[in-house]
Amino acid sequence: MIGYLVRRLAQLIPVLFVVSVVLFLLLRLLPGDPTTEILGQEASAADRAALRADLGLDTPLWRQFLDWIGGVLTGDLGRSWLTDEPVAGVIVDRLPATVELGLIALLLAVLIGIPAGVLAAVRRRTATDSALTGLGVLALSTPHFYLAALLILVFAIWLRVVPPSGYVPFTEDPAGNLVRMVLPAITVGSTVVAVVLRQTRGSLLAALGEDYIRTAEATGLRRRRIVTVYALRNALVPVVTVTALQIGALMSATVVTETIFTLPGMGTLIVNGIFSRDLPVVQGAVLVVVTFVLLVNLVTDLVYAWLDPRITY
Amino acid sequence: MATETTTTRDARRPVLTRLLRDRRARFALPVLATVAVAAVASPLLGDRSAATDTDRLLTGPSARHLLGTDELGRDVLARIVDGAAVTLAVATVAVGLALVLGTLLGLVAGYRGGWIDALLMRTVDGLLAFPLLVLALTVVAALGPGLRNALIAIAVVATPRFARVVRGEVLSLRTREWVSAAHIVGVPTPALLRRHLLPHLAGTLGVFAALQASTAIIAEASLSFLGLGVQPPQPSWGAMVAAGTDHLDASWSLSVFPGLAILLTIAAFNLLADALRDAFDAHRPDLTPGR
Amino acid sequence: MPLLSVEHLTVTFNPDSRPVPAVTGVDLHVDAGETLAVVGESGSGKTVTALSVLGLTPRPPACRTTGTIRLGDTDLTSLDARGWRSVRGRRVAMVFQDPSTALNPLLTLGTQIADAIRAHEPVGRAAARERALAALELARLPQPGTRLEQYPHQLSGGMRQRAAIALALAAGPQLLIADEPTTALDVAVQAEILDMLDTLRRDLGMGLILITHDLGTVATHADRVAVMYAGRVVETGPTGQVLGDPRMPYTRALLAATPRLDAPARQRLVAIGGHPPDLAVAAPGCAFAPRCPVALDVCRDERPALRPHAPDQLAACHHPEAPLPGPVAAEHDPTSAGEPTGEPVAEFDEVVLHYPVRRGLLRRVVDRVRAVDGVSLRLWPGRTLALVGESGSGKTSLTRTLLRLERPTGGTVSYSGIDVTRPDREQLRRLQREVQVVFQNPYASLDPRMTVAQILAEPLRVHRLDASRTELVRLLEQVGLDAAALDRHPAAFSGGQRQRIAIARALGPRPRLIVCDEAVSALDVSIQAQVLNLLADLQREHDLSYLFITHDLAVVRSVAHDIAVMRHGRIVEHGPAERIYGSPTHEYTRLLLEMAPGHPTQAPSGRTAAWSR
Amino acid sequence: MDTPSVHPALLSRRALLGGTVGALAAVSLAACGSDSGTAGGKGRGGTLTVGFDNEPTTLDPALSSAISSDRNVLNLFYDTLLRQDRDGSFVPALADRWTEDGRTVTFTLREGVTFHDGTPFDAEAAAFNLRRVIDPATRSTKAAALKNVGSVDVVDARTLRLTLKASDPLLLIHLAHEPGMMASPTAVKAGDYGRKPVGTGPFVFDAWRSKVQLTGKRNPTYWRRATDGSALPRLEQVVFRFVTDTKVLRAEVTTGGVQLVRTLPPEEFNQLAGDKQITMTDTGVRRSYYVALNVTRAPFNDPKVRAAFAMAIDREGVGKAAAGGQYDLAPSFATAKDWFYDPSITPPALDPAGAKTALGGTPVPITVVARRRAPDPTIAELLQSQLTAAGFAPKVEVLEAQTQLDRMRKQDFDAALLVIDIPRLDPSLSFDPYFSSRGSNNWSGLADSTLDRLLDTAAASEDRAVRKQAYVEVQKRIVDENYWVFLHQPKSPLIHSAKLSGIVLDVDGQWRLDEAALAS
Fold this sequence. Notes:
Shape of chain A: globular
Pfam family, one (chain A): BPD_transp_1_N
Strand content of chain D: 15-25%
CATH architecture of the domain at 286-490 in chain D: Roll
CATH architecture of the largest domain in chain A: Orthogonal Bundle
CATH topology of the largest domain in chain A: MetI-like fold
Strand content of chain A: under 5%
Keywords (chain A): Cell membrane, Membrane, Transmembrane, Transmembrane helix, Transport
CATH superfamily of the domain at 286-490 in chain D: Dipeptide-binding Protein, Domain 3
Largest interface: A-B, 56 and 48 residues
Family (chain A): Belongs to the binding-protein-dependent transport system permease family.
Oligomer: heterotetramer
CATH class of the domain at 286-490 in chain D: Alpha Beta
Structural class of chain D: alpha+beta
Membrane topology (chain A): Multi-pass membrane protein
Number of helices of chain A: 12
Transmembrane segments (chain A): 12-30, 101-122, 134-158, 178-197, 230-249, 287-307
């Protein structure tokens, strides 16, 4: 088990290397001079040239890459070109909002998606099933920015039940934090809930068709126990996979959602960083996100082993 | 070859029949057909969708403009019809490109195995760990905004997904006895891949392509929302919704109708995927859509 | 009063759309302490009958069940869901065919068995656990205490079936239904399980319904037998009576088609022609009539009712006295005699095949699975070598080296002087043409997306041979199919027909050697006989060599010239078939022979009098 | 300007808004003028939350790069030696008085002022700040503003003398803004100053969370008094919340989440009209949209084609579509209130047919670059449609700011759509960078000696009449040559909660909040 863990972690190294190279090169392809954003549009050419030298932009690309990756390996993600803050500090500052958003979305997925999926599967081919699966498709088919705009319009502007924007750290004002996170979390969570619902329904139906369910029925077990213990537990294994795969998707959703709700999270950090060509911040933030996603995949595999005794590492 | 044609028809008929009997497909296919017809027929409308009229801004639905006008006084209906072309391009060209490339990579990785597989799959793992939108965003930002580059970006993002699904499928297919039989009798590898593996991927690929189409449309819409998608004056539904959300309270119809178009199309692809999956009778967890 | 009585049971699937009568008018009864065997080939309705006794047939509208099922004084058909629950497990229990899928893989045995008890009795956790332990002991699982905490995957197949039986017995049922309880198990284990069921039935005074397709099992383990065909009971009565003096031509044909260890070696089996009817197509008359060698016009027009023939023996036949072309019609194969001659076709020389077991951080090879551990064998032209062994014995791994699907770790495999592991271009073409294969699973061995024509043409095209339609039709005719098959897909054919197509495909490039990997194991007895006969005919006609892999010694009795018995990757005994059957030298071979169902030494209760000759 | 077919809802809103603006102008003047005595009785304390769309990248005034919006924040923490009032006149601040004598300017500093960190404010500190801006090693974005300062000398603790290389009519203006903002030398030397500002201003820097908010707390020892003698500032705390989405920003104003916003686009503030909780005042602040034409290459090196371009553009249409009707049309960067404004300067009349004729039939391909920021893409789209109708074959490229400016600096474009905030502190700051042949933002690639001469004349003189004459000539020349086509000037009213009063505005409309107060 420990050996497996270490081996999987070791396998991350080539993947992360690929990620770093792709990320670095891709970002260097971005057109536009980063000094414009830093010095303002009326800065002189000489000032901009001097700043470029300061930022090391006049050295060869491989050199810049080595400098960056060398820093990363020693735990130094560099400094923001724009604000000169340490990138690591910026990321630490931005993580809570995104993590909270993701956690609430996942919580919604578990608390709503799984029970709804079970209900749909148990009531297969009834109006309940149709309604739930229909809602699922609807949620999957609504772009996040559209949903977010509608939610703001209805709840913040028309009904005025929640503030339309702003972020308060949970540690400072839990209630204020939560009330502001409701709409973003619903936005981000909508897809995850739908995906979990659909997967739960699908794999529960599949599990209910297995031989061991017939065996359990033949021993006279109650339907309720058969569904919740004998079928659901087996059905959860693919649900866990799919939910874990959603972590990456969740990050995409937060990019859009944080932008609309102006939440200071990783999504806005990355997008604004790309737009303002603050490449050290983008590199650092994406690297953190990617590493996180990869670690989640690893944890998922460990969760399998916990859910399914047949799997040993 | 006469036998070939009879077979393909024969082989697909049950799937097609089952598909046509499916409630979801009965909804999805007409919607998608409408989108396709709109995309193909839009040039017939001429420049109706481009004609601005600053005296008629943000009007609601009327006899003259069935779905109202936008912030530049253009006819929303004409623009939705025009925008169908973009959506169709995303769903066909970008997803098609990813399908071809991804299938190729997945076939090679899955069938050959060894270091090629390891190299390809590590790369795929890395690419998949990128949040889809961030990757697409960066690619578009690097290449420059526009339809062509958005298509490339979406294809880049979707290719590893296809590669992974195909590889998984190939790994299980290659142990099938009919594949072994073909190998034993000396069917050359390319022919073996083409004749014995590819046709069996059709179901999986069909379902996955439909799901990826919906993902791709959302991605294009999101790119457009962030301003990096299709560039004006070419209308795209995503950009129209984005523009419409700026005028939500001045004109509800502006974002609602293109939003509905996008929602219906994505829903159609999702439902088609569901119907296809049932028609092919494949319950596979890794086919659930991801963004 | 019988423990269970089933009257006029009719089960129809899709009654509203495309009705399929899976079971029609079945009457059965079982007394306490009695074993009733329900025999039939796949699709004959035996499992559906069993499931209806537990109320586990699909719910309406997918399925409609009529008739009455009485258990003791309870009319089961009138029960509601709650009532059914109190019957299942408590009064009737069932053991399913495949223990690897019948137990929940994510729950411990203890949990599953305790659940079965607590479903019926308000006992506490600890008490339920005690009872679960007792159930495991009853099913004779070694170390039952530790088993409680184990998951199904931690047990071997036989143990899993014991656990499944323990689960069924946990709540103390009066009637146990065992649906093909041993089909998925190795021969040695099969007998143990069947013996245990016998003992349990006797000790607990249960009624036992044994569902099986194997007449050998029936002969040794059943008091009475009901033969089912196309959803109906066509003959029923005391085992000795039915097997000894069958009145229904189907029963008789079935008996004749069953491979037997006590039959002369390499003697042709008597096959039943045709294949079972499609239940969805309603036809008047006797369902067996199209395949029946003695059918009259009346058989096709009027369905015969079950009529008594001897005490307690009923048969559904219009002329049960008609003489059948009996088993005596089997002809002796003249080529079987003699020693191998000429050069061997293929040769395994000290073949070793190890799969590395990697562990630890650096995935170092810490151990090897010795799948094949030094095997030397020769295949002779025109002869059949049966490679016999249980699952995991390495027989399939060995043949995979010959088929170039696996590279041996050591030793050489050669075909006609060609080193199979490194043939040159020309030699590779020869190997690809001259060594063909027929796999076990008729459903997986043909590409379902291709037409039969394409399937047959592919090897021919690869080797630039004549792939004309005429040639394809000729191939089909060799295996008893006609041109109509060419443009259809494998899905349109039954298992036996598919296996014929697979054989036709193998014959296409005119091979010298065909590897038959459990080629008939998945087929019903009547079809098995057809295919075995076909293989024997083709061998004679084309001077083919066969490498015949099987786990069942009886099956290859009619075709094998030589037999090699394999165990743990090694050959334990090897020699001419006659000698192996007649005087096996190795203990393991003897065990295999003894354990095989229907072996003369297994006659515990004299039931088999009619069976043994 | 209105045509009968305009959406009735828009019309009524506009009418309402017009009334509001008129009514509030007086209040605004009172608040902005020197007479703030009435503010004394207003509420004291409280937290003012400001919705701000343009987060500064640094709070170091020497490094601040935004042309003016940063000053809204910097004014919280910093004072300058002197202040410039809304009407352009200078009043004492950290300097009690100053004298100009040829090429030397001598400041006498206020006594008893200390920085927030306790460092005393004296001539050494003032000199430190000015030298820091001038020192090339600082790479101050404000260095150019003090380019004429030869030396900065500390005469004594209260006296500071600047010696100029050349006379500079703009020097005092600059000293009254970012280049003259006084930062604590102790804090500057301590490092990471841009994120931990220490000045002498009305508020003490408290916390800054990027993309979230920035907080300043009341400076209890602030030197400045209200005219009634009461202590300033009145507010206990000021919070700048960074919200970029205008829709959200408007919603925040509506719901009272913020009491003051920097700017809202017309389609948003149009919707606030009639809300009694909200005060909207047109303070004359505008944004000026323009199209710069690249005269260094075909086709716009041809004056006829430039004229055709000008005739092709329906400026009113652009205003209607992009500014919801809340705009002015002006010949240049000048607004009607500016002293260098001349209504007689008129661009070519809208005449698409004429343009088409002038272009001679074959569509003239041009590339228009625009910035990806609402509403610029919309305007670009509209221009595209208008240009097409007038015989051009325009290709619009919507780009990131950096990319667009890169392209423009390389003169790799034909027409560029951009906007600047006006008014600026001085017209020279608006015109020189863009129209001088040496200008840093000479997008058009002009080398027009007439313009250069006029601009130099205007910049060198302190006589407003001379300057006005020169700037009017400048504007005439630009419009006659059609180097640039000035589009509409959307209004940018001051929007705040009706409870908030006492906002004082800089010359260019940026806030000073020391006198601001919130009614409870």
